[in-house]
Design goal:
single chain, 379 residues, seven-stranded parallel β-sheet, 13 helices, globular
Amino acid sequence: MSVQLKPLEEQTIVITGATSGIGLTTARMAADRGANVVVAARSEDELRTLTEEIEAEGGSAASVVADVSDRDGVREIARTAEEAFGGFDTWVNGAAIPIYGRLEDVPVEEMREQFDVNVWGVLYGSLEAAERLKGRQEGEGGAIVNVGSIVSDRAILLQGSYSASKHAVKGFTDALRMELEEEGAPISVTLVKPSSIDTPYPEHAKNYMDEAATLPPPVYAPETVARAILDAAEHPRRDVTVGAGGKGMVLLGEWASGLMDTIMEAVFTDLQRKDEPSLPNDANALESPAGDLQERGGYEGHVAETSLYTRLTQRGGSTSAALGAGLLAGAAYAGYRTIRGADEPSGSDESAPAPARNARSDDRDSRSRIRAISGLVKR
């Protein structure tokens, strides 16, 4: 069935994980565009500051302190929306916790806590939203928007447990969408899959690497994701990928999975580590709420403010978008040839195993070329 969604300025939107990064950017953008917003997070002081900020600028907001890993807390979010605004039209599941480190180094207990937020929080929110949106009058549809990730489609090393959690989010979202469509419920279900986004994600992560964590390029502004989320609140979308950089990685992984594995093994460890010591692990999102309201992180490289690829896919320009992503995949293959030594001087030590040759070589130029390649179709 065709789901009819209200214009944003007529909606009430619930957003979890609303005091940092993508959630915070989305909440502010939705309020600026006239929507009522119900913001939820674990940070009481930051929620109070955010609602006061929105109201001071003429918007309408309500907040609720909630841990989405607690189903009763999620139910309280829905009750708050009903008490403040008579219900909601769109529910955005944005809360998530990152962990960096090799899978063997991350305590299993912490992976379980991560899944409680990243997976069960999405499940609780989606089911709560679906139950309440089903009762809407004919012609008044609602939307559920789940924030997945590029790693919903393509796992990345050093973020293995996060990748697994986002794979689970994709599987749950796809199944829920089909079930609601099959029963004719007036609900749109969208999975938004961001590429690397300049948020405090690395700073808030629990980090089991010796070096400080960072994001693999290309990196996009959080506004690119917020726009995609709010577009899905008004226009039913199955899923949307934010950033051609991430889409190119996924496509190459589908076309040549072994090749993509090799590229990741060669460069993605270094691309996720800074040349400086790891931050203290006593202040991370796994163990405590986020601090001050921060949309952006401390990414030191170029940040793309828009994504042409995403805009094209939202407007039906799938052919142009696919061409852009295909170009990036081709560029990634050129990078692979560089890393594997296709341009190696003939006098190199071919008798040594490839890992040994690479270990002895100065691969700084290779990493720089991959950074440049990743930016070819960064829009």
